[in-house]
Amino acid sequence: MYDYALGGKENFPADRIAAERAMAMVPDARAAFFANRSFLRRSVAYLLDRGVRQFLDIGTGLPTQGNVHELVPPDAQVVYVDYDPVVVSHASMLLAGVGNAVTLAGDLRRPDEILAAAPLDFRRPVGVLLVAVLHFLPDGERPFAHVARLREAMAPGSHLVLSHGTTGDRAARMNQVAKVYDSATAPLVLRGAAELMPFFAGLELLDPGLVPVTDWRPDAAERPVSIILAGVGRKD
Ligand SMILES: C[S@@+](CC[C@H](N)C(=O)[O-])C[C@H]1O[C@@H](n2cnc3c(N)ncnc32)[C@H](O)[C@@H]1O
């Protein structure tokens, strides 16, 4: 659905139908998806500035423009993780011949398996990217415990990058959109800032905090998007 909205070609009729339904309900959904990708780019640039050279991108999504390995210098390592076999096989094909990035099949609900399989040095700083993925984990799937496990494995100087769907100024509409996802692979769980703060427990939440995605260190004028919250935490 997301790939279709971003103008990609890696989607199926069921994705297109559901995406059109969701976008008809929230006309700025497509702008929100682009704003989310723009946040990914800005946050990776920010981490690079702070010396991070290892990235663990969980819930990578179908290969789309501006993937993390295209944003980092050759000496940086990128590990993509997704639980969708279609995503993993497409990403693996795309990365054939790319020396500093690999794709693994892995499930955020099993963080120990991801940590064991990722060819990264967890004694050094790592950027853990949880971008537009945690809203697919209802509380019953224990997202807070899984993210706590990731935080625990992160060395000092590591960063947690998070973006997450929220109702923003579109409460009624967004709750309808969440219903569309009832027939998708995973439900969509919209959370507010107070509910998201525990994901950053023990980390320093960096300026400007957990904010609407377009307010996170903007580097160009973008139409404001309120339905995605974004933030970056640092482990000291
Ligand atoms: C909306 S896409 C986000 C893509 C990318 N991170 C971005 O923000 O542009 C969400 C991705 O998360 C993946 N995903 C959802 N639940 C997951 C889980 N439990 N473990 C790993 N990947 C998951 C989906 O397969 C999908 O590819």
UniProtKB/TrEMBL annotation:
GO biological process annotation, one example: methylation
One GO MF term attached to the UniProt entry: methyltransferase activity
Superkingdom of origin: Bacteria
Pfam families according to UniProt: Methyltransf_19
Gene3D superfamilies on file: Vaccinia Virus protein VP39 (3.40.50.150)
Matches recorded under InterPro entries: SAM-dependent_MTases_sf, SAM_dep_MeTrfase_SAV2177_type
Keywords, in A-Z order: Methyltransferase, Transferase
Keyword Transmembrane helix: no
Entry protein name: SAM-dependent methyltransferase
